[in-house]
Specification:
- The protein is α+β, with helices and mostly antiparallel strands and about 625 residues long.
- The protein folds into 2 domains: about 230 residues, Spore Coat Polysaccharide Biosynthesis Protein SpsA, Chain A, CATH 3.90.550; about 325 residues, Ribosomal Protein S5, domain 2, CATH 3.30.230.
- It is about 40% helix and about 20% strand.
- The protein contains 21 helices and 21 strands.
- A hairpin with a 6-residue loop joins strand 19 and strand 20.
- Helix 11 crosses helix 12.
- Pfam families: GHMP_kinases_C, NTP_transferase.
- One of its GO terms (molecular function) is glucuronokinase activity.
């Protein structure tokens, strides 16, 4: 790939105002072209771009196009920065009136140097807010798409869309559907601004001469009009990629623009260190319909405040994942200590989940056209969730990592599940991920037709007022989730009638439970919970559910409580409407060596910050 930096513009307004400034503060900048003015941190604006693209593993050549009026400035700059002087191209123009135009400058390089490769074009006199974005990620995204690539950013507050080329981008395909050059107010609701930062396929380079033949006037030879023509008339596929930054000093700007934006971006960069970001994710219990979430069924689940996991993100020089002292132990009191911990907890803590999520996040952003900054971080986590209740560490990073506009909740749940199933091969379903993303009490419909059409299920938050006293008990020794799921998936894929009918019945029970929640008919809900368990036993068998789970079920029923499995195994959730029996049952569970707690439902609408701290 070849990179071309365009600095052939004539900054007449800025240059004139610097010369006429009476304060004397800018006299040393008189005659200096815009690209060579001091940028953020005192570094020349062009220095930043040269450092960004000066990578042989990405670009075979880098060219710089300037005008005759400022050629000597750039020649001296090239010798001082090890830029190949022979790659500085003079377009011959000396004034704003006899300029060639941006597209003509690009065509000049392609034609004169006989370029036959994909090219990246950047305006080398733009001020970029983020000095750490990953240009390699831009190239990877470009090569993954069958067309050209336009870089865009979201306009900052106070920026008018009439001052920029505005793009409308399909959120699914990332294809640019419209390009509007400095549109008047009301023509588009888009706030996505394009700048001179493009990737163009080699086969498209020939279109430039056709465009220039149709635009004899210099004023029409802008990239904005070129893209409008290419998209609207030539029907070329053009895609968009969002950079998490801003761009300024584009085109003809004045001294006040230069000082304002330089101060603004410099203040941002020199500001106080970023505050740590901490987010908490709550454990969940499946109240009805599980485990049909993986089989086009329906479920109801609820987040609980009793147990939680949280992650903290801090700014750091390198990317660091901090092992948890309890869940990712690396130091033991003795060999016997290691043996006991490993036998009970296994070998798989939360660290692998964080690492897999980071990897999947980078992959997701690259695929979705979201360029990331190179800024590093330290990520650590904490949790009080017993493994047999709900392994929620995997949800942590996904919950706070994405802004809602970049990843809607249904897609976020899919993302988290994919981390577990695709990266770590963990047996899991969508129910847990959905309820932990939405939080609260959630009704979920995973019907095949809806899933195939939308890529996710239909999720509806439910009223959480006046909920009955649910309880939770779990074994001291964790259960293996994978074994509990057994061979049901194979039987379901084989369309075994018993399994197909059971999943249909799970969905019916869930709809009936939804009605019971709405009517606050807790006796009916208790009956449905018992039916859910018996239906599960009929297809999974007691051998699969295991003696520990069945022991807790039998104990609960001795006290007249409804009971079912809230997840894959190792815990039971119940509903006891008799307060006196609930107290007696707690004691019985404790005497049987189980942990028992009354559930505190987590209601996000009752929390001022929705789970973030």
């Amino acid at each position: 790939m070849i990179c071309i930096l365009l600095v052939a513009g004539h900054g007449t307004v800025l240059e004139t105002q610097i010369k006429s400034d009476e304060t004397g503060l800018y006299s040393h900048l008189s005659g200096v072209p815009k690209a060579l003015l001091p940028g953020i941190g005192g570094k020349k604006i062009l220095d930043f771009w040269w450092e960004t693209v000066n990578m042989r593993q990405l670009f075979t050549e880098v060219y710089l196009v300037t005008n005759a009026d400022k050629y000597k400035h750039y020649e001296r700059w090239a010798t001082a920065t090890d830029f190949p002087v022979e790659n500085v191209i003079n377009d011959g123009s000396t004034t704003l009136e006899d300029r060639l135009g941006a597209v003509a400058d690009l065509e000049l390089v392609v034609r004169s140097r006989k370029l036959q490769d994909d090219i990246m074009v950047i305006a080398g006199d733009m001020l970029c807010a983020d000095q750490n974005f990953d240009i390699a990620q831009v190239i990877r995204f470009f090569r993954s798409k069958p067309g050209e690539l336009i870089i865009y950013y979201e306009l900052e507050e106070g920026e008018k869309s009439s001052s920029r080329g505005i793009v409308e981008v399909c959120p699914d395909s990332h294809r640019v559907t419209r390009f509007l050059e400095k549109p008047q107010e009301g023509r588009t609701a888009s706030r996505l601004a394009s700048v001179v930062f493009y990737c163009i396929q080699r086969d498209t380079l020939s279109y430039m001469s056709d465009f220039l033949n149709q635009q004899p006037q210099t004023t029409g030879r802008t990239f904005g009009q070129f893209w409008e023509w290419l998209i609207s008339e030539k029907q070329r596929h053009v895609f968009g990629m969002k950079l998490p930054t801003g761009f300024q000093l584009i085109g003809q700007v004045g001294l006040s623009d230069y000082t304002k934006w330089l101060t603004h971006y410099s203040t941002k960069q020199q500001g106080s260190p970023a505050k740590p970001i901490t987010c908490r994710s709550y454990a969940r219990v499946g109240l009805m319909g599980n485990p049909s979430d993986g089989f086009n069924g329906k479920t109801i689940a609820m987040t609980i405040a009793n147990f939680w996991a949280e992650a903290t993100l801090l700014d750091s020089q390198t990317l660091v994942l901090v092992p948890h002292p309890l869940n990712d132990p690396t130091e033991f009191g003795s060999l016997q200590d290691l043996f006991c911990i490993s036998r009970k907890e296994g070998y798989l803590g939360g660290l692998r989940l964080l690492q897999a999520t980071c990897k999947k996040f980078y992959q997701f952003c690259s695929k979705q056209g979201i360029a990331l900054t190179k800024q590093n971080f330290t990520l650590k986590y904490d949790t009080n969730i017993p493994r047999q209740v709900c392994p929620s560490e995997s949800c942590l990073f996904g919950v706070f990592l994405f802004m809602p506009q970049d990843l809607p909740k249904p897609i976020r749940a899919n993302f988290i599940l994919n981390v577990e199933t695709d990266e770590l091969f963990i047996t899991a379903g969508l129910q847990d991920r959905v309820v932990q993303v939405y939080e609260g009490l959630v009704y979920m419909d995973f019907s095949k037709e809806f899933m195939e059409e939308h890529g996710f299920g239909s999720y509806t938050p439910m009223d959480m007022s006046e909920l009955p006293p649910f309880w939770l008990a779990y074994l001291s020794d964790p259960s293996d989730s994978g074994r509990i799921h057994s061979n049901i998936r194979q039987r379901w894929l084989s369309e075994e009638p018993l399994v197909i009918e059971a999943m249909r019945r799970f969905a019916e029970l869930t709809d009936q439970a939804r009605t019971a929640f709405r009517d606050k008919d807790w006796s009916r809900l208790a009956q449905l919970m018992d039916q859910n368990l018996e239906l599960r036993r009929s297809i999974y068998t007691d051998d699969c559910l295991g003696p520990g789970n069945l022991k807790m079920v039998q104990l609960a029923r001795q006290f007249g409580s409804a009971v079912k499995l809230p997840g894959s195994g190792g815990a039971v959730v119940g509903l006891c409407l008799d307060q006196a029996r609930l107290v007696e049952m707690r004691q019985a569970f404790q005497e049987a060596g189980c942990v028992f707690c009354v559930i505190s439902p987590y209601n996000p609408s009752a929390s001022a910050v929705g789970g973030q701290h």
